[in-house]
Amino acid sequence: MKRVVFDAGAIATRVQELGADITAAYPDGDLLVLGLLKGSFIFLSDLVRHVNRPLQVDFLVASSYGDAMESSGVVRLLYDPETELEGKHILLVEDIVDSGRTLNRLVELLRERNPRSLEICALLHKHIAHELRHPTRFVGFDAPHEFLVGYGLDHAENFRHLPYVASLQ
Ligand code: PRP
Ligand code: MN
Ligand code: MG
């Protein structure tokens, strides 16, 4: 059973607002938008089209859920960007902050590369993570404590293509 939590129209409106917020936050441009795959692929592609600044795009691939509905606790980094991060404004784009393990691990890794700044933009945030090492500056929606799919989010690799976010509960 699926219940629509955020429909396509609500997402489009909010993504446009986030794009405007990001545009305002980086007046000098020179931004490197780092999409965390696979989950952020749709969000990132919609978001960057609403950022009216010079920017570059690269990706990281990390995974911790596999086919399960709970984090394995081990965040595997499967692809690391080749772009030089030192001295750049980095915006890490995530689909969802759940337990916070993924972001904690990646923030640690990205900070070691001495970016000029590091901020996070997440479409969804469950606000259940206890020890987030870095604030999420840009948040699309506060998310319910349910397993969500669609608009990039998967369960066992399915449902990513849905144009809305739905709960599997
Ligand atoms: C999901 C999601 C986030 C992360 C959030 O990724 O896309 O990256 O988990 O959960 P956390 O805050 O508990 O770490 P997943 O490991 O499922 O890989 P995927 O992006 O390829 O689906
Ligand atoms: Mn992910
Ligand atoms: Mg997943």
Automatic annotation (TrEMBL):
Domain Phosphoribosyltransferase: 7-154
GO MF annotations in UniProt: guanine phosphoribosyltransferase activity; hypoxanthine phosphoribosyltransferase activity; magnesium ion binding; nucleotide binding
Domain of life where this protein originates: Bacteria
CC cofactor: Mg(2+)
The keyword Cytoplasm appears for this protein: yes
A Gene Ontology term for the protein's cellular component: cytosol
EC number in record: 2.4.2.8
Entry's Gene Ontology BP terms: GMP salvage; guanine salvage; hypoxanthine metabolic process; IMP salvage; purine ribonucleoside salvage
CDD domains (alphabetical): PRTases_typeI
Catalytic reactions of this protein: IMP + diphosphate = hypoxanthine + 5-phospho-alpha-D-ribose 1-diphosphate; GMP + diphosphate = guanine + 5-phospho-alpha-D-ribose 1-diphosphate
Primary residence: cytoplasm
Subcellular location: Cytoplasm
Pathways involved: Purine metabolism; IMP biosynthesis via salvage pathway; IMP from hypoxanthine: step 1/1
Key words of the record: Cytoplasm, Glycosyltransferase, Magnesium, Metal-binding, Nucleotide-binding, Purine salvage, Transferase
Family named by the database record: Belongs to the purine/pyrimidine phosphoribosyltransferase family.
Name assigned to this protein: Hypoxanthine phosphoribosyltransferase
Taxonomic lineage: Bacteria, Pseudomonadati, Gemmatimonadota, Gemmatimonadia, Gemmatimonadales
